[in-house]
Amino acid sequence: MKKNILLFFVSLISVSLFAQKGFHIGISAAFTSNFIYTQNNYGTLAPFKEEYVRVSEMDYRFTYGGNGGFVVGYNFKKSWGLQAELRYSTAGQKYEDNFMGPADLPQGRIGEDANGNATRVNVKRVVKLTYVQIPIMAKYVSKFGKKAKMFVCLGPQFGFRTASSENVEIGGITYFPDFTSDQKFKTFDMGLALQIGAEVYATDYLFFDLGLSGYAGILDINGDGLKTFISHNDVKYQQSRNANVGIMFGVHYLFIKRNTEGF
Prior knowledge:
The chain is mostly beta strands. The chain has helices spanning 2-19, 51-54, 181-184, 224-227; strands spanning 23-37, 60-61, 64-75, 80-100, 103-105, 108-110, 120-141, 148-170, 173-175, 188-201, 206-217, 241-254.
C-alpha cells in the first residue's frame, strides 16, 4: 500500500506538470495539539500494590506537536480540485496523575512513610510518535473574493511511523514496562484529514493560505501483541487512535497566471 500511495503522489505531480492548468506547488506547516484517544496503560501502573490503582486510567495533559512538508495541487475547475501533501509529523500524548502507594520498583518500594502508611505517588507517562504522512484531499475554493477566498480540503490521510518512544516515571524514578514502544504501536495509520481556511493572493502567481487543520484516525494504532496481552492494569482491551487539531499556514506557487474568474 505504501508503494501505491507514493506512486499516486508522483503520478499526480507528473500529470499536473503536463497539464499545467490550475497546477500549484508549495510548502505548508502546522502547529498542533495531539491526542491518543483511549490509550491503555499496558502495565504502566503494574508496580502499585492496590488493584484499583492498577486498573486506573491516567489524566491527559496538553501535548503539542506539528507537521511540515510539500504540497501539490491541481484545480480541475474554478472551485474544485485535488490536493496532496508529503510531510513529516509528530504525534503522541502526555499523561500525569497521582495514585495511592505503595509501588514496588526494582530500585525499591516508594509511596510509603516510615510507619507503613500509604502516600501519594506521582506518575508521568510520555508517548512520542513520528510519521511520514500523505493526505490526499478534495479541495473546494469559494467563488467569492478577489484577493482572498475561503477553502475546504477533505480526504483520507495515510501515515507511516518512522520512530516511537515511551518514557514512564513513577515517583521520579524511570520505569520500563514489559512492552517496548515499537511493540506497542503499529507502523501504519490511516484516518480523515480536514483543512478549513483562506487563500490570500499576493500576486497572480503566488498565494498564501492560513486556517485550521484536523485529523481523526480510524485505525487502531496498538500493536497486535497488545491485543492478547492480559495484565492487572487493563480490565478490557480498548482501541487507540491518533488525532490532532491545529493552526496551519503555507505558501504556494501557481504555474499559470491567475485571474479573478478562475483558472
